[in-house]
Amino acid sequence: MATEFEKQFVNNIKRAHVHVAWDGDDSSEVHVVIWPTWSGLSDFEKGFAEDIVSWGHTATAVDLYGVGNNPTELQAKADTMMALVANKESLIALQTSICEDIAEAHPNKKLVHVGFCLGGRLSLEAGLHIPTSQGAASFHGLMNFHRSTSSVEINQKTKILIFNGYQDPMVDVESADKARAYFDEQGLDWQFIDFGQTKHSFMLPDANAPQEGHAFSAASNARARHALRFFLDEIAG
Could you read off the pLDDT of 39-73 as tens digits, one per residue? Predict the structure, then answer.
């Protein structure tokens, strides 16, 4: 990995992932890895992990940047995100390392990635490039994820589910079409769901800047959660 990447995201970074276990008699075979927004791990991702566990699975909300390292200012968030995704090999190596730690804590589970905004993109990258992955679900995620040109390099068994706001200014029609075409050309099992009258960040209760293309949608949030639950149950078998 590049020295600057290692310095910012790898070396001496203490991560405190939030692991949530099912409290019933027996959990499903699915373990959900939750990738956060560009703000890093927050109460939103922790709460979503709790919701997933209430469906009978286990989950880990990823501490992406490390304890005390979450950016707070908009420019810092943008700069941190761009540094994170700039190099495919460095990014996938970091994600693989994180997932290996999670898999060690939750052995014999089917890893399914879920993410929001930046995390939506990261869930797709983890699903496509980490061979142990069984599925990836993206909520208002970015479609400029790193591709592999050879189907041999792609995790062919991963199932893809994308939830997209049709009015999301960060996912234009061209980038959405290119993503769909890519998944189809690679022979993947994929679904791409557009929600009408829905903007970016539609899953985030605090999102309230419609003039900038960001707004929570109670209806789309509920529908997406319902579809995700079916998706996870399908993978669990």
Answer: 999 999 999 999 999 999 999 999 999 999 999 99
pLDDT at 113 over 90: yes
pTM for this prediction: 0.96
**Domain of 218: which CATH number?**
3.40.50.1820
Provide the domain limits for residue 161.
3-236
Q: What ranges make up the beta strands (E) of 36-188?
A: 58-61, 110-116, 133-139, 159-165
Give the model's confidence band at 13: pLDDT under 50 very low, under 70 low, under 90 confident, else very high. Answer: very high
CA proximity to 156, closest of 128, 178, 120, 185: 128
Burial of 204 (0-12, 13-18, 19+ CB in 10 A): buried
Q: Kindly state the tokens that stand for 169.
A: 């200014």
Query: Which residue is it, tokens 């589970």?
Result: 109
Q: At 74, phi and psi to the nearest 5?
A: -55, -45
Q: Which residues contact 188 (CB under 8 A, 6 or more apart)?
A: 154, 156, 158, 159, 160
Q: Take residue 234 and report the two structure tokens written for it.
A: 């399908």
Q: Provide the domain count of the chain.
A: 1
Structure tokens at 175: 């980038």
Residue bearing tokens 């605090």:
206
